[in-house]
């Protein structure tokens, strides 16, 4: 199963489906379980969680490349070869990110920056979401040692249980107990996956706490890639999540926030589907690239782009046909969405499909500096779309914002199209 790109793609798509169900279930459940004002604060918490989860700055991508080369025996005799102590250092780093994010959240709750009467609920949700950081390390490490299928199977089981616990809130389970149990399930699954990596690599307990040796190796062999990777990751995080905060600053009306949250969920759905397909094809794409086989590379990229567009068109058709009903169901009828809003979301999604293929492929090729340059116009457009819409079209602020954001994505997609064209002509 591990050797079959088709089977692996199907398993990854199944897991993506469960992740998407969980994401929509979070909104479906909490928009009903919380008052509207609490739910607006909850959306800010979700956005902050997204920032925190993305703050690993591409380290797990770097360790995947290094560990994969080590596993395949391609780094023998290399002075910069992968060291087992690196795993402990990176695990520590991710733990510190979670701890730092939790401290910031506690300060924000204490200071009233995130207004809520249920701080424990917010903290538990944040912690359960942040477990995706060590989960990402487990996923990438298992993938590097030919454990893709194992991780996807474990994660599918985890998602099924957490979705069931989440939906149980609607039939009377205390939300705090639900989140605490989800936290426990995630800890058990991720811990088991890390233990499996430990066993496959022949690690010893001392490797996880040799921070001086591992830290020295990370400092010597990661810093070259991590600068551009970190800058690109930060740019990407802000570009995709900033409107949550700029909308909150611009207006107290819930509708613009709900519109953006709806678009964000659609874009996340599409990007995850595209990522699953691209990840299944990456072994062949990277092999063709490093072998200089331009014809094969062009063929594989064409297939990836075609598949991404099929997903984007299918999602667009769904939105144009039933987007208004989906919006009403998702947000419990607390706002409505217009046809014009849906058309702008569709335009943005078509542009996003191309952008996602470019980012996932070029990140796998280590072209972080190139991606950083391409991300800056998107970042600028994302930050400016809300204040410009508020300034120029205050009466139709929500529609103007979506229009400017869609235009930003179109321009970013055009830059990435040129980038991919050059990639296959190098």
Automatic annotation (TrEMBL):
Transmembrane region(s): 7-30, 42-67, 88-114, 120-137, 149-173, 179-197, 300-322, 342-363, 375-393, 399-420
Presence of keyword NAD: no
Signal peptide, first to last residue: none
Swiss-Prot/TrEMBL keywords: Membrane, Transmembrane, Transmembrane helix
KW Nucleus (keyword) present: no
Source organism, top-level taxon: Bacteria
Protein name, as recorded: Membrane protein involved in the export of O-antigen and teichoic acid
Species assigned in the record: Sphingobium xenophagum
């Amino acid at each position: 199963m591990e050797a079959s790109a088709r089977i692996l793609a199907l398993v990854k798509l199944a897991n993506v489906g469960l992740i998407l169900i969980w994401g929509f279930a979070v909104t479906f459940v909490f928009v009903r379980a919380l008052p509207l004002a609490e739910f607006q604060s909850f959306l800010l918490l979700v956005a902050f969680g997204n920032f925190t989860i993305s703050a690993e700055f591409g380290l797990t991508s770097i360790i995947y490349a290094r560990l994969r080369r080590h596993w395949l025996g391609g780094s023998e005799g290399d002075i910069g070869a992968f060291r087992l102590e690196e795993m402990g250092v990176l695990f520590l780093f991710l733990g510190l990110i979670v701890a730092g994010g939790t401290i910031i959240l506690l300060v924000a709750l204490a200071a009233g920056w995130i207004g809520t009467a249920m701080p424990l609920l917010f903290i538990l949700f944040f912690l359960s979401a942040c477990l995706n950081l060590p989960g990402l390390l487990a996923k990438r490490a298992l993938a590097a040692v030919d454990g893709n299928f194992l991780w996807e199977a474990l994660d599918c089981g985890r998602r099924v249980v957490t979705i069931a616990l989440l939906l149980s809130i609607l039939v009377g389970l205390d939300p705090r107990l639900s989140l605490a149990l989800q936290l426990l399930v995630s800890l058990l699954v991720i811990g088991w996956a890390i233990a499996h990596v430990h066993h496959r690599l022949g690690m010893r307990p001392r490797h996880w706490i040799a921070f001086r040796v591992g830290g020295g190796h990370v400092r010597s062999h990661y810093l070259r890639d991590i600068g551009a990777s970190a800058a690109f990751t930060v740019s990407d995080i802000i570009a995709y999540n900033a409107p949550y905060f700029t909308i909150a600053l611009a207006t107290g009306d819930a509708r613009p926030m709900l519109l953006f949250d709806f678009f964000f969920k659609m874009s996340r759905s599409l990007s995850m589907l595209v990522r699953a397909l691209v990840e299944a094809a990456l072994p062949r794409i990277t092999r063709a690239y490093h072998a200089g086989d331009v014809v094969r590379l062009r063929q594989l990229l064409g297939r990836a782009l075609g598949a991404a567009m099929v997903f984007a068109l299918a999602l667009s058709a769904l939105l144009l046909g039933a987007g208004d009903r989906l919006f009403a169901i998702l947000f419990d009828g607390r706002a409505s969405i217009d046809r014009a809003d849906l058309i702008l979301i569709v335009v943005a999604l078509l542009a996003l499909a191309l952008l996602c293929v470019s980012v996932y492929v070029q990140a796998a090729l280590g072209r972080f500096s190139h991606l950083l340059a391409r991300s800056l116009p998107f970042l600028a457009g994302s930050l400016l779309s809300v204040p410009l819409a508020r300034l120029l079209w205050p009466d139709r602020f929500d529609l103007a914002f979506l229009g400017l954001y869609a235009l930003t994505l179109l321009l970013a997609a055009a830059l990435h199209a040129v980038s991919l064209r050059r990639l296959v002509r190098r």
